[in-house]
Design a protein that fits this description.
This protein has helices at 24-33, 38-54, 149-164, 171-177, 198-202, 205-221, 234-244, 264-273, 294-297, 300-306, 313-338, 344-351, 360-385, 404-414, 418-433, and strands at residues 8-10, 20-23, 61-63, 69-74, 77-84, 93-101, 112-118, 125-127, 139-142, 179-183, 188-190, 193-196, 226-231, 253-258, 277-284. It has 3 domains: 4-101, YaeB-like fold (2-Layer Sandwich); 112-328; 340-433, no CATH class. The two termini are 26 Å apart. It is 44% helix and 18% strand. The chain is built from 15 helices and 15 strands. An 8-stranded mixed β-sheet has the order 1-2-6-5-4-3-12-11. By secondary structure, it is an alpha/beta fold. Helix 8 (264-273) links the parallel strand 14 (253-258) and strand 15.
């Protein structure tokens, strides 16, 4: 694999470390990518040669499903490679398999506490990238799906944190005081693969759970009353932290869940054991967010909410009503998925038989109703497809407080209209998983 017949060329001649090979066609692509920037080319070449010593290290992305496949980011280039052991058919070494452009935020940070302030102006919210030792605000949050800490802190969580505090006059307080974000680094998706990021290597899930547990204990020790807003996958991290803290008193913490993905019938009992409180509204979902259908359809969650005491009877009843409505919706989508819109009724419309019995006004009403139903179905399909998109302008998972109409308006406005919004989803998912 490492000789001239295999298509790979040796690019490191040092006796120290692994040998580094690059595929011939990739070398040609690389030359085109750095044309016009000698300094950039030198930096990338230097990094390629350094792979003999640091390939697959703490600053590399690692494929979660393949132990020998890794990726490095240099300048704005993404370098993919495999680390192979010596075998009968190939010499051992680092084999560079791809080089291409990538969008990556150089200011990404690791897990931890970060202060977020409201600033009057076009950007509104500002993340302080210096990690804090403890919570300094009344309101705190744990992010879920996001591209970077900056996107989580400034584009996603402010709407959710203020939305969770609308009913207790907390919105203005948040604008004045800001909030503290516990940032939970995400995985990186590229080339249809999931990669562990350098931030995750330095702050693995277990480390982050332990760190969050210490944050909770520290706030309790300081007798702080913290209002938490936990979004999406942040609920998974919270559960892991609470599993480490069973028996500890955490009654100074109140939690609201925004579109949680962790199974709530398993998480809520852990909260009760620690004395944690639930927000009056408990949780919220966007109607088209189905990342965690179990949390919208599981009747056991009603019992768990009721177990927090009489004060939560209304919240349990509200969840029950929402669950019944969601069951109808889920059943309806299942029926639509198995029954194409080409039945005898549509055939009769196409043949004109059904419309022959109606006058012009009735005909216009029927066709208008069908068009509206198809349009609504199309928007919901678009939104549910966007559940996988890592873009706040498209994904309903990131907008649990928006109604169907306001979210559809948000998508259309943010993407240049209805038609362009469908194209935007294809483009976003292509970037995320390509």
């Amino acid at each position: 694999m490492g000789d001239s017949h295999s298509g790979y060329m040796l690019i490191s001649t040092s006796e120290c470390g692994r040998k580094v090979y690059i595929r011939g066609d990739v070398a040609k692509d690389f030359a085109g990518l750095v044309t016009g920037s000698a300094f950039k080319g030198q930096r990338v070449v230097s990094r390629l040669i350094q792979l003999r010593a640091n390939a697959g290290g703490m600053q590399s992305f690692s494929n979660l499903n393949s132990a020998f496949e890794h990726m490095d980011i240099v300048e704005n280039l993404q370098i993919g490679y495999k680390i192979l052991q010596t075998s009968r058919n190939q010499p051992g070494g680092v084999y560079i398999t791809s080089i291409g452009f990538v969008e990556q935020n150089a200011e990404e940070v690791g897990s931890g506490l970060y202060k977020v302030d409201y600033i009057k102006g076009p950007n509104k919210w500002r993340l302080d990238t210096e990690a804090k030792p403890s919570i300094t605000t009344k309101n705190a949050a744990i992010n879920g799906l996001c591209k970077t800490a900056k996107v989580a802190a400034q584009d996603i969580m402010p709407e959710i944190v203020t939305g969770a505090n609308q009913n207790d006059r907390g919105k203005q307080f948040i604008l004045d005081d800001g909030y503290t974000l516990y940032y939970n680094p995400r995985s990186f998706y590229s080339r249809k693969k999931v990669w562990k990021t350098p931030q995750q290597k330095q702050n693995c899930f277990e480390f982050a759970a332990n760190q969050l547990g210490n944050v909770l204990l520290n706030a309790q020790y300081r007798q702080q009353k913290i209002q938490w807003t936990v979004h999406g996958d942040g609920s998974r991290l919270l559960k892991r932290a609470l599993m480490r803290l069973q028996g500890q008193n955490l009654d100074g913490h109140t939690v609201f869940f925004a579109a949680p993905t962790e199974w709530m019938a398993g998480l809520l009992p852990l909260m009760r054991k620690c004395g944690m409180k639930l927000h009056d509204e408990v949780m919220a979902f966007n109607a088209d967010d189905w990342r965690a259908p179990g949390n919208r359809l599981d009747p056991r969650i009603i019992t768990e909410i009721q177990s927090f005491g009489p004060a939560y009877r209304q919240a349990a009843q509200k969840y029950k009503q929402a669950m019944q409505s969601d069951m109808i919706t889920a059943f309806g989508w299942g029926t639509l998925a198995s029954t194409p819109l080409t039945g005898s009724f549509i055939d009769s419309l196409m043949d004109g038989q059904f419309l022959d019995t109606m006058g012009p006004r009735e005909t216009a009403g029927v066709l208008g109703g069908i068009s509206l139903a198809v349009a609504r179905r199309g928007r919901s399909l678009r939104n549910m497809t966007a559940n996988r998109a890592n873009d706040p302008a498209l994904n309903p998972h990131m907008h649990p407080f928006k109604s169907a109409s306001s979210f559809n308006a948000h998508v259309a406005q943010g993407n240049g209209g209805e038609f362009k919004s469908f194209l935007a989803i294809c483009k976003s998912l292509g970037k995320e998983y390509a």
